[in-house]
């Protein structure tokens, strides 16, 4: 009789195999139909994740369904190191996103105080907003048209007060408008008039800003800060997901250990019966 632990593993790994195949399909889709560099970047994560899930789930299925302890042993070893890796990654994410954790800003304050890369850890700065990676991120921001949604109001009498009261994500606040200290006057959501006397501050971002929709403030330090703020927020959410995933994997690992023991018992009975 098939044990409960084996049935649970078969069910879990069948679902993982489906997810792996789905992820591989997305990867192949982006290889074939990806028309922009941003879309093509997505192919590697999907292919790597899909391949990993497919291999691990097949090992688990063979080990639990066919009662093969060799494959079950490899499956458990991979799960063990995966659990350790996720725990380590969770602590790492907490460390690199904890820089400036005591600085909490409301949406209103995020508009008034433009974020800078110095507000974030050196690791995040070096790996995400360096010259090479930033060009790819900027390309994705333009492709995603993050600033186009702000340009629906073309009224030349557009009031700054109305604009400031809007709830904007950190990326739009930082990349789609010039830094607030520059003192530029907003004509509409994406067009700002430069004062005749020039910017009100010597912030280099004031000179980087352009009303060209393909330029805007995408190369501003404040835009990079907005991207890092968004990344930090997502990674902190990822910590919670990782904790839940670790608990789930520990449960699957425990069930796998029971299934391996059941395989040994079943294989021992089969051998005695054959003799």
The separation of the N and C termini measures 20 Å
Q: What is the 3D form?
A: elongated
Radius of gyration of CA atoms, rounded to a whole number? 26 Å
Low-confidence stretches: 104-112, 153-167, 270-275
Outline the biggest β-sheet: 2 strands, antiparallel
What is the residue-mean pLDDT, rounded to a whole number? 80
Reading the helices and strands in chain order gives: HHHHHHHHHEEHH
Beta-strand percentage range: under 5%
Give the number of DSSP strands.
2
Counting DSSP H or I runs of 4 or more residues, the number of helices is: 11
Structural class: mainly alpha
Strand order of the largest sheet: 1-2
Percent of residues in helices comes to: 55-70%
Model description:
By secondary structure, the protein is mostly helical. The protein is built from 11 helices and 2 strands. A two-stranded antiparallel sheet has the order 1-2. β1 and β2 (192-193) form a beta hairpin. α1 (4-33) packs antiparallel against α3 (43-65) and α1 crosses α11. The chain starts with a helix and ends with a helix. The relative contact order is 0.13.
Helix-strand blueprint:
Layout: H1 4-33, H2 37-41, H3 43-65, H4 69-96, H5 107-112, H6 122-128, H7 131-144, H8 160-165, H9 170-175, E1 185-186, E2 192-193, H10 204-208, H11 221-274
Antiparallel strand pairs: 1-2
Helix pairs in contact: 1-3, 1-11, 3-4, 4-11
């Amino acid at each position: 009789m098939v044990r409960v632990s084996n049935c649970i593993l078969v069910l879990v790994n069948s679902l993982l195999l489906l997810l792996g195949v789905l992820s591989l399909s997305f990867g192949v889709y982006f290889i074939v139909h990806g028309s922009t560099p941003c879309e093509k970047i997505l192919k590697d994560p999907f292919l790597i994740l899909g391949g990993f899930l497919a291999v691990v789930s097949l090992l688990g299925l063979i080990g639990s369904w066919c009662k093969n302890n060799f494959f079950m042993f490899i499956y458990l070893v991979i799960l063990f190191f995966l659990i350790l890796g996720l725990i380590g990654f969770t602590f790492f994410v907490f460390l690199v996103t904890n820089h400036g954790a005591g600085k909490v800003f409301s949406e209103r304050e995020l508009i008034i105080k433009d974020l800078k890369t110095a507000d974030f850890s050196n690791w995040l700065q070096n790996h995400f907003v360096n010259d090479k990676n930033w060009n790819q991120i900027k390309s994705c921001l333009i492709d995603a048209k993050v600033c186009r949604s702000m340009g629906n109001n073309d009224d030349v009498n557009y009031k700054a007060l109305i604009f400031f009261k809007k709830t904007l994500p950190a990326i739009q606040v930082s990349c789609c408008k010039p830094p607030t200290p520059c003192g530029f006057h907003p004509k509409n959501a994406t067009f700002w008039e430069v004062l005749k006397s020039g910017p009100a501050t010597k912030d280099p971002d004031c000179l980087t800003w352009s009303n060209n929709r393909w330029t805007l403030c995408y190369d501003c330090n404040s835009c990079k800060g907005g991207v890092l703020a968004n990344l930090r927020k997502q990674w902190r959410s990822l910590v919670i997901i990782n904790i839940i995933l670790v608990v789930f994997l520990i449960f699957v690992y425990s069930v796998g250990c029971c299934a391996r023991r059941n395989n040994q018992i079943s294989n021992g009975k089969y051998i005695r019966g054959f003799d």
